[in-house]
Amino acid sequence: MYKILIADDEKDIIKLLRLYLEKDDIKIYEAYDGMTAMGLLTEYEIDLAIVDIMMPKMNGFELIKKIRKTNNIPIMILSAKVETADKIFGLELGADDYITKPFEPMEVVARVKANLRRFYNLNKLKMNQDPEIKVRDLTLDTNQCVLFKGETKIILTSVEYKLLKLFMESPGRVYTKEQIFEFCWGEVYVVDDNTIRVCISKLRNKIGEGEIKSIRGLGYRLEA
Fold it and tell me: Which of 68, 29, 59 is nearest to 206 (CA)?
């Protein structure tokens, strides 16, 4: 049974999502402000967090920053803020998905399942598969879903992890934006350069600006 935290100061929204998600045998933890949400994340082993931006005591952006200091669980933003700048900022902080209000409950359920599937299926390794992927001073531990640059541990979001795993399994290979989008988000590619650029930028900040190269007119590659 997966455990999901829903942090939103609108109780009706939590009630609605609980109604739909519990049908799929998902346990829901409720928080109506950011501080309570952080306490629940500390106390329980939460598998995914759905976070509103405009909450009392600690807003959603602040909550995401705190989560990402120690945890790489999937985070979905559910917000009435529809501006592109807010979406990009949320993704830059470490969110894996952004849904605007008003929303269709079944779409939220589908995205929850997709994020859980993408993240937790990464841990289902074959017995004979080496759990570590190494490229120069980068070591990706596929059991813990964490990256080491030398001796320094680097926390990755689920999308960052999946993208880096794709690159590190074939260093030097050029991946198109279409391939990256469909692999990391599990959806047919539509023009969404901002999403990919944000993820690439975040990875560069964590592993080094020169590690991932932009190939004009083609896509991206990890230096071999």
Answer: 68
